[in-house]
Amino acid sequence: MMGLLRSLLFVGAAAYLGILLYMYVQQRSLQYFPSHQGTPPEALGLTGVTEERVKTPDGETIVMWHAEARPGYPTILFFHGNGGEISGRAERMAFYQSQGFGALFVSYRGYGASTGKISEQGFITDALTAYDFLAGRGVAAKDIALVGESLGTGVAVQLAAMRPVGAVVLEAPFTAAVDVAAEIYPWLPVRLLMKDQFRSRDVIGKVKAPLLIIHGDADRVIPVAHGRKLHELANAPKELLILPGASHDAISDSQVWAREAAFLLSTIR
Fold this sequence. Notes:
Blueprint (H helix, E strand, L loop, with lengths): L1 H30 L1 E2 L15 E6 L5 E7 L7 E5 L3 E2 L5 H9 L3 E6 L12 H17 L7 E6 L1 H12 L4 E5 L5 H8 L5 H4 L6 H4 L7 E6 L7 H10 L4 E6 L10 H15 L1
Parallel strand pairs: 1-5, 4-6, 4-7, 7-8, 8-9, 9-10
Antiparallel strand pairs: 2-3, 3-6
Helix pairs in contact: 3-4
């Protein structure tokens, strides 16, 4: 009997270690879901949008869509979520243009037609490169508004903690990507194993710009408790907009974008 028990324990431990190894090796394929269409903006019906290919300090080439702002309007530096690429956000770009905003959409390294391998640090380098691109085009820091959706909120928070901006909008943010992973996989030591942890909670206190957090209270991808906690940790001035009955898909709702536009126009203009 004891021999059978030892055998079962050995098999169970081996299976757990095997799962652990698989999750560690494959973790980025479980965290990121890029597409690689690289469709140019004009092919999607956008006008007044240029495709820019810019070198990063570490030698990668990132693809960005750029639209100029009307006089007196801010420029939105937009960071998308973990799925797709900027060519899947053409409707959002068109909306921003219709409101008079300028916009710079960033395809992270490893997404769309951008080169390089996906990593948190790589995304931060891409964000800094995009920020410097706008500065080089004469856009003042006070006229740059950061908007991040889902995973992109982790990029936006880190950039806002390192560079001055006029305002920050976070759509369905997390306290940290590792916190979400720990909730999904409570039986794994994800806090020890996860490479790209995006610890927004650790740096949100460095953000001095006006902040708007929007979160659906029926979000099952990133629970609304994350948005509430991040708002609690943030500096004033700050706003928290909870959308009753809204899921994670609310980040793709033009009515949500309209609320953000009102916030930005009241804050920056």
